[in-house]
Fold this protein.
Amino acid sequence: MAKRRTGGDGAADGSVAGLIARCASALERSGACFGHGTDNARDEAAALVFHVLGLDHDDAQRAYRLPVAEAGLQRVAAMLDARISTRRPLPYLTGEAWFAGLPFFVDERVLVPRSPFAELITTRFEPWLDPDRVRRILEIGTGSGCMAIACALAFPGSRVVATDISAAALEVARRNVARHQVADRVQLLEADLYAGVTGTFDLIISNPPYVSAEEVATLPEEYRHEPVLALLSAEDGMATPARILQHATRFLAADGWLAMEVGGGAMLLEERFPSLPFLWPEFVHGGDGIALISAADLRASECPATP
Ligand SMILES: C[S@@+](CC[C@H](N)C(=O)[O-])C[C@H]1O[C@@H](n2cnc3c(N)ncnc32)[C@H](O)[C@@H]1O
């Protein structure tokens, strides 16, 4: 049997590592855009190869050295070709995205989960909230349900209400709620923001659409496969976040908190609501643009409610 070359990054050998290196080069040459779960060609290639070959990320060092059979090579080549020729984000091709350490089914009906909210949820919003006091959580714009479900699991004693205006997105969320066995604690509601929501909540979370039409028009091809409802917000992008903010006090418990992502719109939100003392957490795992504000501060500043 011929001896395999195993040096360097393994690019020339028949191992998993070599295959990942070749896929990464092809992705780089193609001009594909990364940002749907990975932020570079190498990580995206690894995700693709591990998924197709059914390899275990927890045993990656051993997996890298495994040889790849011809059938596996062909399956990887087919998915790589689909990724490059269609520019569909990889999670839509694999049907799976990871968020807060949990797997979620995804397709084109929902945004690919990637929010830095994952870090806030896994650290249970400390030090801002006392996790033991979080009983009722509301999510506005749940998409795949990833944030609502991750919250239900991070706060085992909690109940979560999650709204979305998209019936199609809620079908995906329903599937994920069943997968993670939280149907008894996560209620999905088809609604425009808070419509039909009753009661008050210890925590309101939202990753709403916050991209202006001008910006949407310049997004790379990959983002055009995502539902426009999940990205586009009127005016400078802050119209939907502003509506969420303006109605939040009605749904927040006295010591509750609102956490809302606005990404690169942080300055725009600050300018629109100069009297609100937003906090902007820093993230160990990257990302930014999540505003935190307490119910007390919202009430004190008399954030004007729109009809
Ligand atoms: C950026 S996606 C976030 C999805 C998910 N929370 C996540 O982080 O992956 C925004 C979601 O808000 C929903 N949405 C947009 N406008 C809405 C509205 N007026 N009321 C409720 N949901 C809305 C979209 O359908 C989409 O699922």
Summary: The first helix runs from residue 16 to 30. Residues 1-11 have pLDDT under 50 and may be disordered.
